[in-house]
């Protein structure tokens, strides 16, 4: 058995989501792999193909290989270069604006004193520090676009169409600007004028629908993509949404936890497509014992931009474990945004306000024990001043 760079192996196949979740869970629980991948003299994988594909999706740098038969041997994640993906530019120098995104990770993790007590420390992961949409959606916009280029034989993408409530559209628009593509965005009626204007500033053709939810536009956009031979990345069903958060977001969060000496008890985050929180749940439920995962959604009959009800249709949440889903009223989310701005000096988005209020609800209801809790704040608040105006 020997370790070789994973990019040197040849494998043209893919695996289904259930197989990936099963194998990646096994690797995360064990903290490594216990067998080698079989390759021929051309380094083409001939046995243990699902394992090889899973390791590639997880972003390891090296892969254990052997010839003739798979050898039983344990190789740790660290030896596989599992964490090598998370290497920020120390002096903050970037060769282009795409590198500005992924070499700027990890996004900051900061303690919130206003929510912490003597026995409970609350940390916020600030996804608003991503440069394109100032939100967590930059990760999926970048990864989905990159995967689409790979599928297209590295040829440029001409026209993309996407249903978005702003952030994913901005992220894809940034990638289109960098690589010379064109984006047409279909937005629901609930999107603010600010969101629509931002998309147009990025050069996006914006079509506003009478439908209230982004997810309700998927079939319409899919039909348009087929008719116009356009690329529909489809954030709601594209597994790159789940994979990017498993490969980067969750992995970098583990390194930050180590750095801060955090005694992690739980993670709280909002549910939109369910991509980032499902990946975080899968990662931490397998890597750590007794970590609770909580999701936050709008109260029934209401809406909060960026998150939605589970029953509206989510793909990945049904593949993982959540310990509780918390309902939050939009008024409470908005008031919490203002409260955190006035107590912590940072402006967060409405879905982030919902996450913070969701944590408060869990605390009141007795779900929070001593230890450390991480709140995933999906975006910055600058896009929501229009909605926040009536609370001032």
Automatic annotation (TrEMBL):
- Record keyword Ligase present: no
Q: Does the keyword Oxidoreductase apply?
A: no
The UniProt GO MF terms for this protein read: cysteine synthase activity
Could you list this entry's UniProt keywords, alphabetically sorted: Transferase
First-level EC class? transferase
Q: Which domain of life is it from?
A: Archaea
Cite the Tryptophan synthase beta chain-like PALP domain residue spans from the record: 104-378
- In Pfam terms, one family for this protein is PALP
Entry's EC annotation? 2.5.1.47
Question: Cross-referenced PANTHER family, in alphabetical order?
Answer: CYSTATHIONINE BETA-SYNTHASE
Q: Supply the name of the protein.
A: Cysteine synthase
Please report the organism this UniProt entry assigns to the protein.
Ignisphaera aggregans (strain DSM 17230 / JCM 13409 / AQ1.S1)
């Amino acid at each position: 058995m020997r370790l070789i760079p994973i990019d040197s192996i040849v494998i043209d196949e893919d695996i289904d989501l259930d197989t990936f979740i099963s194998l990646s869970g096994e690797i995360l629980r064990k903290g490594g792999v216990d067998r080698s991948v079989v390759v021929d003299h051309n380094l083409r994988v001939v046995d243990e193909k699902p394992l090889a594909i899973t390791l590639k999706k997880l972003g390891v740098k090296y892969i254990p290989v052997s010839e003739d038969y798979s050898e039983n041997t344990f190789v740790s994640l660290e030896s596989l270069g599992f964490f090598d993906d998370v290497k920020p530019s120390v002096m903050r120098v970037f060769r282009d604006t795409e590198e500005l995104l992924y070499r700027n990770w990890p996004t900051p993790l900061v303690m919130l004193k206003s929510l912490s007590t003597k026995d409970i420390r609350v940390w916020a992961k600030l996804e608003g520090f991503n440069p394109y949409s100032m939100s967590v959606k930059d990760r999926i916009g970048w990864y989905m676009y990159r995967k689409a280029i790979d599928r297209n034989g590295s040829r440029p993408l001409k026209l993309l169409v996407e249903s978005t409530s702003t952030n994913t559209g901005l992220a894809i628009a940034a990638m289109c600007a960098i690589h010379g593509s064109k984006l047409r965005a279909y937005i629901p009626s609930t999107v603010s004028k600010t969101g629509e204007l931002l998309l147009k500033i990025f050069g996006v053709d914006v079509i506003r629908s009478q439908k209230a939810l982004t997810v309700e536009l998927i079939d319409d956009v899919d039909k348009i993509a087929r008719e116009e031979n356009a690329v529909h990345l489809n954030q709601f069903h594209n597994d790159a949404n789940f994979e990017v958060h498993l490969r980067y977001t969750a992995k970098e969060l583990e390194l930050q936890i180590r750095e801060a000496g955090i005694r992690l008890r739980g993670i709280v985050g909002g549910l939109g497509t369910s991509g980032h929180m499902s990946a975080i749940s899968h990662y931490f439920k397998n890597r750590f014992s007794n970590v609770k995962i909580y999701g936050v959604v709008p109260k029934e009959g209401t809406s909060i931009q960026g998150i939605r009800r589970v029953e509206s249709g989510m793909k990945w949440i049904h593949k993982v474990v959540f310990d509780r889903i918390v309902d939050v009223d939009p008024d409470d989310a908005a008031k919490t945004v203002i409260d955190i701005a006035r107590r912590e000096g940072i402006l967060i988005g409405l879905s982030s306000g919902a996450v913070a209020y969701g944590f408060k609800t869990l605390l009141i209801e007795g779900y929070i024990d001593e230890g450390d809790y991480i709140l995933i704040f999906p975006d910055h608040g600058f896009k929501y001043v229009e909605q926040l105006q009536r609370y001032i």
